[in-house]
Amino acid sequence: MLIDGKSLQPVGTREASDRVSAQLRAVASSFPGMRVHTLLRDNHLLRWETPPTNNDRKPAAIPLPSELVLYKIR
Question: Which of 30, 37, 44, 66 is the most buried (most CB within 10 A)?
């Protein structure tokens, strides 16, 4: 989602960048329902995985911690 810097209102969306490979967008965890999150700024990519939201209910199972990884894109 693209956000206006002054009003902080949504102004559009953008597709995942071609600079982020399918391998980095793929879930590495074997825990069911895990999701990949990425943040791409200039030539740096931050990647992490989380389980789906649970709306503050006790989860049936808790995954092992995932890595928070910073990549430098060349």
Answer: 66
* DSSP one-letter code for 53: P
| Other beta carbons less than 10 A from residue 38's beta carbon | 15
- Which stretches within the chain are classed as H helix? 22-25
Separation between Cα atoms, residue 4 and residue 44, nearest integer Å: 22
Give the integer Cα–Cα distance in Å for 10 and 33: 27
Is residue 21 within 8 Å of residue 47, measured between CB atoms?
Answer: no
Q: Does residue 70 have a pLDDT over 90? A: yes
**Of residues 12, 59, 13, 15, the one with CA closest to residue 25:** 15
